[in-house]
User: What shape does this take?
Amino acid sequence: MTTLAITRSVMTTLGTNGMELAERCRPIELLLLDVDGVLTDGRIIYTERGDEIKEFHVRDGSGLKQWVRLGKKSGIVTGRRSELVQRRAAELDMAVCIQGCAEKRSAVERILSELGLRPEQAAFMGDDFVDLGAMDLVGLAIAPADASDDVLAAAHLVTAAPGGRGAVREAIELMLRVQGIWAETLAKHRRGGGQDPAIVP
Assistant: This one.
């Protein structure tokens, strides 16, 4: 699909803001994510022993692995702490994993400085009001379909999928399609030359 066709598709889906969205997607090199409500469905589940359980969607994982294989960077910025999150970040070769973060905007500013990136080269995906500062800072603010109303209003892109159900993968595909990379990714796998991004170390 050509960039023009992609832009038209985006405009058909999102109306007159489609062209602006495509322009925001093109320079993105860094994708930062909240965890609960974005990489998961937002539920916090404890076992009888008090252990926390989180469920991650495999297509989000394969999308993030492919994102990194293409030379891009990803990371987590979350207010909660969990060993499961650290493990997932390591599995997906994330560049950063910040947990227990009380001020996400400041954290994103530090990340951008350390990686030598401009705000317009970064996207942040969040689902609640604590994510608004980070979303306002970056070039592309993304929200899953079931995000809070304030976050939905602030987002440049709202996915059709809810958090924890492929929303991250949906956003990655859109960015890579706009950047003209996704078609070649598919072609490599059809030729049998692509690694399975779902296989994690």
Q: What stands out?
A: DSSP finds nine helices and eight strands in the chain. The chain has one domain: 3-190.
